[in-house]
Design a protein that fits this description.
614 residues, alpha+beta, SH3 type barrels, two-stranded antiparallel ribbon, five-stranded antiparallel sheet, 3 domains
Length: 614
């Protein structure tokens, strides 16, 4: 294995990806596997660079202005002063051939072109102490209304300006002078920012309490699910009334496990049907984009038709309520087996396909967070499928089963008003997620987190069996509410949904097409990545308005259960903790990604989720 050339903490010159310019950076770490240096620029941006893109400071020396070859303007001025000699006569009696003259002209033209390109790039990326705004892609003013696509128009600079740049920067490599593609035209120079390619290195900052924290979560999360379900089945579901533990054999039934496998397989078949459009996800670390078929809403319609057919042939969904604990145990066993399979297959995955946050080298931590970013079997994306299909659609089916169970147990001709509100609110939420399925491709779950126990358990166990807690609670603890109270709760849910949907639509539309005339009123702060940070609309109100809408809706889902017990409010309490933790993760990643631009955004939008509170 080759030894590293630069030590941690050493100040060197690093080449900015996609350009010929070198800037002063500090080495922070080195990945022995990928052979990449993590360097930090003056504005706080961290990048992974190859050793060939890093040079010592001593190799960069200013060119002396006395050298006639250092500046085209210097040569032209010397010719203008020698009036007694013909411009075509060679110096000191030496005659230049026509080919030599052409080579020198070509060389001069190439230097001028490279200089013009360098000037254009310097306007955008020069990371000096007095120019940190432009390094982060920010203009003199912090807000813009134009598009984030950077197209620079620039004509040839005067010879004097070219001389100044050539004296300060070495634009061409002294040793490996490679032929660069000409992007200069006579009138315009277009500088397109290429995405910075990062090969995932070892995860150094461990989340969720590190190895001990993730190990405890693997044990406590399943226990929490069964504790909540056992509490709901008690006549007095108070926190101090701990439920008796059931026998382990009563939690398992092979027939129930077979029904769960049938459900999972049915949703997999629906997802593979050639209906719906195919879209590309965000670029991976190697620049490749995966393709996804968007047909979640069609799968929901087909599922509804299948459930309707079962009810028509008098199939009792009460079976789901009667074996609810067994279904939870089956989902847990399946998610655990799936997590083991995912980790084993990730050991053979290429380095560039590993998750940025799940490559620590510690078994427990990587098993929990997910070692591989996008595990696929052919074109079947396991993480993307589990994110929305079996658990989310299963949540609606469980709610429907609870509604029918309430009618059967309490001999009701129609469901209670509380049950109708819970089913309606959560049905709207699920349908919205499936209708706007494409938006999930930009979430942290897809772009950053690997697919391990955390997401497998969350998608297949936590979502369907904990998010349906209010409906399960109402079956055993019916609550009567008046129509005015129901109307007030409905208004609250509509407010939360409006904030949630309009904020997400603003973000998704801006990411898809910043130049859309409909978004001309939105202002944003440009960043060095080419993306913009919205500072108007909902995203100028708080940094995560979609989280605010989510929490308001979660409260509206719990209110129909009354105030006799805190158990139905577990979801809203848990959801606030989850979103606050996720917001902290977002802050950390955005600060690393956007540098000073993110700090300016935080100054512009000081509140994170709750306005004037947090």
């Amino acid at each position: 294995m080759p030894s590293r050339k630069f030590a941690d903490g050493e100040v060197v010159m690093g080449r900015w990806p996609g350009s010929v310019l070198y800037y002063e950076v500090q080495v922070t770490s080195y990945d022995d596997v990928a052979h990449l240096y993590t360097v930090k620029y003056k504005d706080g941006t961290e990048l992974a660079l190859k050793e060939s893109d890093i040079r010592s400071q001593s190799s960069f020396k200013h060119r002396k202005s006395q050298s006639s070859s250092s500046s085209p303007s210097r040569r032209s001025s010397s010719r203008s002063r020698s009036r007694s000699r013909s411009p075509g006569r060679p110096a000191k009696g030496r005659r230049r051939s026509a080919s030599q003259s052409r080579e020198q002209k070509d060389d001069k033209k190439k230097i001028v072109q490279e200089t013009s390109l360098a000037l254009a790039v310097l306007v955008l990326f020069k990371p000096s102490e007095n120019n940190t705004k432009r390094y982060n892609g920010e203009p003199e003013s912090t807000e813009k209304n134009d598009t984030s696509c950077i197209i620079l128009e620039q004509k040839l600079k005067p010879d004097l300006e070219i001389k100044r740049v050539l004296e300060q920067y070495s634009l061409r490599s002294r040793k490996d002078d490679k032929k660069t593609e000409e992007i200069f035209s006579e009138k315009k120079t277009f500088v397109a920012l290429k995405p910075i390619e990062k090969v995932p290195s070892k995860t150094k900052e461990l989340e969720f309490g590190g190895r001990i924290g993730t190990f405890m979560m693997i044990l406590l999360l399943p226990a929490t699910v069964f504790y909540l379900l056992l509490m709901c089945k008690q006549d007095d579901p108070s926190l101090l009334n701990f439920p008796p533990l059931p026998a382990l054999e009563s939690l398992w039934e092979w027939r129930v496990f077979g029904v769960f496998l049938l459900w999972f397989s049915l949703q997999a078949v629906f997802s593979l049907l050639p209906i719906g459009k195919v879209v590309e996800g965000l670029p991976l670390s190697n620049g490749r984009k995966l393709q996804y078929r968007i047909n979640g809403f069609y799968a929901f319609i087909l599922t509804a038709a299948a459930i309707g057919a079962l009810l028509y042939f008098q199939f009792e969904l009460y079976y789901l309520y009667d074996h609810f604990m067994q279904f939870a145990a089956s989902a847990l066993a399946f998610s655990l087996a799936l997590s083991i399979y995912l980790y084993v297959r990730s050991l053979k995955a290429p380095e560039e396909e590993l998750a940025p946050g799940g490559n620590s080298g510690y078994f427990i931590y990587d098993f929990f967070t997910g070692h591989e970013l996008n595990p696929r079997i052919g074109s079947f994306d396991l993480k993307y499928f589990c994110e929305l299909r079996p658990g989310l659609i299963g949540w609606v089916v469980i709610n429907l089963a609870m509604l029918l169970a309430e009618m059967k147990i309490h001999n009701l001709s129609v469901p209670s008003l509380s049950m109708i509100l819970v089913n309606s609110f959560q049905l709207l939420y699920v349908v919205d997620a499936l209708w706007f399925e494409e938006a999930v491709l930009t979430t942290m779950d897809i772009t950053h987190d690997g697919f391990g126990f955390m997401l497998a358990f969350g998608d297949l166990v936590w979502v369907p069996f904990v998010y349906s807690l209010q409906a399960f609670y109402l079956v055993g603890h019916p609550t009567t509410i008046t129509w005015p109270v129901a109307a007030a709760i409905t208004v609250l849910n509509c407010i939360g949904y409006y904030i949630f949907r309009s904020a997400n639509s603003q973000k998704n539309n801006f990411r898809r097409n910043p130049a859309d005339p409909k978004l001309a009123n939105l202002k944003f702060i440009p960043t060095a990545t080419g993306k913009g940070l919205l500072v108007t609309g909902w995203w100028g109100f708080v940094r995560h308005p979609n989280y605010l809408g989510d929490i308001i809706m979660a409260l509206a889902w719990s209110l129909p259960c009354g105030f006799n017990h805190i158990l139905p409010y577990f979801y809203v309490i848990y959801f606030i903790c989850l979103l606050v933790h996720r917001e902290a993760r977002d802050e950390h990643h955005c600060k690393q990604k956007y540098g000073l631009a993110w700090e300016r955004y935080c100054q512009r939008v000081p509140y994170r989720i709750f306005p004037y509170i947090y």
